[in-house]
Amino acid sequence: MYTAVWLTLGAIHLAVILRAILLEGRDTYARAAWVLLLVALPGVGTVLYVLFGERWISRKFRKRARDCYHALLPFAPPASTSPVSPAFTGAFRTCEAASRWPVSTGNRAHVASGADAAITAIVADIDAATRTVHLSFYIWLSDGNGTKVVDAVCRAARRGVVCRIVADAIGSRALIRSRHWKRMRDAGARLCASLPAPLGLGFLAGHRTDLRNHRKIIVIDGGTTWGGSQNCADPAFLPKRTFAPWVDILVRYEGPIARQAELIFASAWMAETGEDMRPVLATEVPGALPGGITAIAVGTGPLSPDATMTDIFVAVLAAARERAVITTPYFAPDPPLLNAIVAAARRGVELTIVFPQRNDSRIVGAISRAYYPVLARAGARIYEFRGGLLHAKTLVVDDALGLVGSANMDRRSLDLNFENNVLFESSTLAAEVGDHQRRWLADAVEIDHDGVAERSLLRRLFDNLLTMAAPLF
Fold first, then answer.
1. Which residues are within 8 A (CB) of 19 and not within 5 positions of it... i.e. 6 or more apart?
2. How far is 356 from 328, CA to CA, in rounded Å?
């Protein structure tokens, strides 16, 4: 009897190893990392692979989400008449392919001066809403800024504005269980706890538990939208106050790009709630504003083709000729992204990368530092921000092209989480984002290249093991 049990378990373990090897669309490093884990930890590795080894989403949910997205595509803004700069064409075409709508022109944009100022302005926009308020946050806390937005939603819903509110079921679980969630519902807001965690083997009918809605989307009356890295919370971020303040960025946009952001919101809402959003989007597309900028909003996630977010990062980095500045809190790149960063530095681009000095994820923080020698040898300048947890995800190229949004340069954002980003061409907006980057650099310490390169044998072993394990995180 025991022999039969062990043979069965061995067969299952071998089948999982073969599955990990044969799965299509996975990069070689991730495949090798999982096979190594399965061989090193039989049993435990099998369980981990079943839970976290693949971007598991049920066929039913996948089909419903894709059908909703396709149904809403006809409501995208029409093609732009103003071409982008030739040097940036590749980056914009990559985003067009990912989103399946064209670049928009005639958009106005402004960066909020800080986290509290951003929330104050968002509350003002909600208070001025006359038709719809659409909000989606990964983390929404019941703190000062969080309750300010809750109060604004309640006021808007009571005066007849249709409020559709999305909060990630894991990231915002405390709010969802609180009286504030009930307050919004009682006021008339329509609520969605996004991607609820399935119980037991229930994920077989839904999705991986750690597959999250990481998006930060605000759309007011279909004509104003906000995007960036900031969650709906105070900079003190009480659940992880040790790392505070959390330093973020939010950009306010007006114009046709608001419709693109609303399409990202609406397709997810339609898939999760079943509400037909086509009548909502049947209103006139926001018109181009005089002197506006070129931009495109892109939603990515586990339903996108493999490596879509990587392709966007790589295309933006490929456009760099003189300089590029990156800020990201979590850095565990896949090989194409790491190669694009290294290639930019090697061809003479003045490449600067800013990480937080203290990271709320010790594992990812350690993985980030394990890549320092590779980055340093290529010629990149590496900084660590000392003024809190630098949570902003920004990439500015040649003082004109910028990518700002929710996606980190780690495997979760590249492969697993639902993300939203905006790519823009504008020297004015790039300068605004650049001003924030320079302020963060002023409160950062540069990592000594020689010190990074001269690692002990033990440290080199540790770092290499971390980079080998990076695909698992």
1. 49
2. 8
Instruction: Give yes or no for a contact between 140 and 237, defined as CB atoms under 8 angstroms apart.
Output: no
| Tally of domains within the chain | 3
Are residues 109 and 48 part of one domain? no
Give the whole-angstrom CA distance, residue 325 versus residue 395: 6
State how far the Cα of 231 lies from the Cα of 360, in Å rounded to an integer: 15
Please indicate, yes or no, if residue 302 is contained in any of the structural domains. no
Q: Give the DSSP letter of residue 380.
A: -
Q: For the chain, percent helix, then strand, then coil, each to nearest 5?
A: 50, 20, 30
Q: Maximum Cα–Cα distance for the chain, whole Å?
A: 78
Q: Which domain holds residue 47?
A: 2-52
Reported confidence tier of residue 382, pLDDT bands at 50, 70, 90: very high
Q: Where are the alpha helices (DSSP H) in 23-161?
A: 28-40, 44-52, 59-72, 89-99, 115-128, 144-158
CB–CB of 406/215 below 8 Å? yes
Kind plus residue range of the DSSP H or E element containing 300: strand 293-300
Calculate the CA 346 to chain-centre distance. 27
- With CA atoms as reference, report the closest residue to 409 among 468, 351, 336: 336
Q: In terms of Cα–Cα distance, which of 209, 208, 137 is closest to 174?
A: 137
Residue 211: count other Cβ atoms within 10 Å of its Cβ.
Answer: 23
Number of CB atoms found within 10 A of residue 286's CB: 23
> Left if phi > 0, otherwise alpha if psi is -120 to 50, otherwise beta: which for 403?
beta
Q: For residue 329, tell me if it sits in a domain.
A: yes
DSSP H or E segment with residue 228: strand 224-228
Give the dihedral of Cα atoms 3, 6, 8, 12; nearest 10 deg. Answer: -160
132-161 CB burial, b ≥16 within 10 A, e <16: bbbbbbbbbbbbebbbbbbbbbbbbbeeeb
Facing residues of 246 across strands?
A: 389
Neighbouring C-alpha atoms within 13 Å toward the C-beta of 382: 26
Q: Are residues 335 and 187 in the same domain?
A: no
Verify that 320 and 204 share a domain, yes or no: no
The CATH number of the domain holding residue 165 is 3.30.870.10
Q: Are residues 318 and 346 in the same domain?
A: yes
- Write out pLDDT tens, residues 119-143: 999 999 999 999 999 999 999 999 9
Whether pTM > 0.90 for this model: the answer is: yes
Amino acid at 186: D
pLDDT in tens, 398-426: 999 999 999 999 999 998 899 999 999 99
**What is the C-alpha to C-alpha distance for residues 314 and 328, in angstroms, rounded to an integer?**
15
> CA-CA distance, 293 to 106, in Å (whole number)?
5
